[in-house]
């Protein structure tokens, strides 16, 4: 197993390099970089005449600039912007310099926030951790037992009506369900039971120790219910189908013929094999719960997490944040994938990755 782990770790290097290289190349062809963003802000606010020497009209300088909208801005100012953002260097030099810094976990500073990227990520992390960890705990804690129950009672009335609820929950987009919860329970047209902003109240620090967890869960209730709907549906049906497939196999019939109880058959034999597919989906669920799955929910409930940070950075073309979050989450995905494989061997010792080609 040690050799397999070492090979997987070594393969992470070209994988990360390839992900970053493709993303960096795409960004080079995307219109509206950070320099264009600054130029747009200046020209739309009338700041160009101040920078090019004053007057009622923009001076006719910068007309040969490669940047759209730079007409009237001092070319020296444009050159300073390029140097500030690092665009005075060739793309390859910028890419390899960025990767060298990232290998040392030096992610630089934001272009527009004047704050270190690591500090920004640390500031937004509590929201994403709250959403990601709790949704994983609740979805697995509810979905796996329910999926097993549905597999055992396949075709019964319990299976039919729970499947109906699950399918409806899966079909309804989570953001629409979140808006519905706001209308019903967060000061919309009906009740005003839950807050709409943040994960804690403004007076959180002054609350008693026993009030703080209650305040935290009060703020997290609606976002978690919203996210749990789709995660709950997917994991439940996946668990049910996996257990049904295993229950129909010959080794289950043999175990029953030996006189084992249904509980012994289900949890002593079927559980280990059926859970493999659930474990295989864990890395993707883990990453999406921290970023992709919570983006719209963060906007709807005014939560300032990593999903919102990443989206705002893409819109603003704040490349240090964009590439840093991409690097961090790609690395997390690869590490969690390796951990998932190790869990495979723990759940089913018959699996030996040492004998397989990577």
Automatic annotation (TrEMBL):
Superkingdom of the organism of origin: Bacteria
Keyword terms, alphabetized: Cell membrane, Membrane, Transmembrane, Transmembrane helix, Transport
UniProt xrefs under InterPro entries: MetI-like (IPR000515), MetI-like_sf (IPR035906)
Keyword Ligase recorded: no
Membrane spanning residue stretches: 9-30, 127-148, 160-186, 216-239, 276-301, 321-347
Subcellular compartments: Cell membrane
PROSITE patterns assigned: ABC_TM1 (PS50928)
GO biological process, one term: microcin transport
UniProt similarity note: Belongs to the binding-protein-dependent transport system permease family.
Protein name: Microcin C ABC transporter permease YejB
Lineage summary: Bacteria, Pseudomonadati, Pseudomonadota, Alphaproteobacteria, Hyphomicrobiales
Gene (UniProt): yejB
């Amino acid at each position: 197993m040690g050799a397999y782990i070492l090979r997987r770790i070594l393969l992470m290097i070209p994988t990360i390099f390839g992900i970053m290289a493709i993303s960096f190349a795409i960004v080079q062809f995307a219109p509206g970089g950070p320099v264009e963003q600054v130029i747009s802000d200046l020209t739309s606010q009338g700041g160009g005449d101040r920078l090019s020497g004053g007057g009622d009209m923009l001076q006719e300088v910068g007309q040969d600039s490669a940047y759209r909208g730079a007409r009237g801005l001092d070319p020296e100012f444009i050159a300073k912007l390029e140097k500030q953002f690092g665009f005075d260097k060739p793309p390859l030099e910028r890419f390899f310099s960025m990767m060298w810094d990232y290998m040392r976990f030096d992610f630089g500073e934001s272009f527009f926030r004047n704050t270190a990227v690591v500090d920004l990520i640390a500031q937004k992390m509590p929201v994403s951790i709250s959403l990601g960890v709790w949704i994983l705990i609740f979805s697995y804690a509810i979905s796996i037992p329910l999926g097993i129950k549905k597999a055992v009672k396949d075709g019964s009335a319990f299976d039919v009506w729970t499947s109906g609820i699950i399918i409806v929950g899966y079909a309804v987009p989570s953001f629409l369900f979140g808006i519905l919860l706001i209308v019903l329970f967060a000061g919309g047209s009906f009740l005003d039971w839950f807050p709409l902003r943040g994960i804690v109240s403004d007076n959180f620090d002054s609350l008693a120790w026993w009030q703080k967890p209650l305040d935290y869960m009060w703020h997290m209730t609606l976002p978690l219910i919203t996210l749990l709907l789709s995660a709950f549906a997917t994991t439940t049906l996946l668990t049910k189908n996996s257990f049904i497939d295993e229950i129909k196999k010959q080794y289950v019939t043999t175990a029953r013929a030996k006189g084992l109880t249904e509980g012994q058959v289900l949890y002593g034999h079927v559980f280990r094999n059926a859970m493999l597919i659930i474990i295989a989906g864990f890395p993707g669920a883990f990453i999406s719960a921290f970023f992709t799955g919570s983006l719209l929910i963060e906007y709807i409930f005014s939560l300032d997490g990593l999903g919102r940070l990443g989206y705002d950075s893409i819109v603003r073309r704040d490349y240090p944040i964009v590439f840093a979050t991409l690097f961090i989450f790609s690395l997390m995905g690869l590490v969690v994938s390796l951990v998932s494989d190790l869990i495979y061997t723990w759940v089913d010792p018959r699996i030996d990755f040492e004998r397989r080609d990577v």
